[in-house]
């Protein structure tokens, strides 16, 4: 999986991730199905995490490290982009073929804080 970040997404995410200890910023792309009623119904979400799970795979991404669960890989394409739209104050996960989420939540799972975006 390849994930690129637009300049606007980088500038918005960098302050959120700069406080992480250890080897630096780590994001996890998940297909969050909690509260959706079915594992096939879900919403793409970015989690800020301290470390990856043993089974997580690492996407090719710059400038942030991005991991994902192998079981969620089926919900995404090989090449995606994360953008930030200042007008709507929202992150967007998209590919050349579709928009996965026009209001992508970024959740700090290190502290279980509410949505960061």
Automatic annotation (TrEMBL):
<dbReference type="InterPro" id="IPR035903">
    <property type="entry name" value="HesB-like_dom_sf"/>
</dbReference>
<protein>
    <submittedName>
        <fullName>Uncharacterized protein YqkB</fullName>
    </submittedName>
</protein>
<dbReference type="InterPro" id="IPR000361">
    <property type="entry name" value="ATAP_core_dom"/>
</dbReference>
<dbReference type="Pfam" id="PF01521">
    <property type="entry name" value="Fe-S_biosyn"/>
</dbReference>
<feature type="domain" description="Core">
    <location>
        <begin position="1"/>
        <end position="108"/>
    </location>
</feature>
């Amino acid at each position: 999986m390849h994930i690129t970040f637009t300049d606007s997404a980088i500038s918005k995410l960098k302050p959120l991730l700069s406080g992480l200890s250890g080897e630096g910023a780590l994001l996890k792309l998940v297909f969050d199905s909690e509260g959706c009623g079915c594992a096939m119904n879900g919403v793409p979400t970015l989690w800020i995490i301290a470390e990856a799970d043993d089974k997580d795979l690492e996407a090719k991404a710059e400038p942030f490290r991005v991991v994902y669960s192998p079981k969620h890989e089926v919900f995404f394409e090989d090449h995606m982009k994360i953008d930030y739209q200042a007008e709507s104050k929202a992150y967007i996960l998209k590919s050349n073929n579709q928009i996965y989420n026009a209001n992508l939540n970024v959740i700090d799972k290190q502290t279980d804080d509410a949505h960061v975006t």
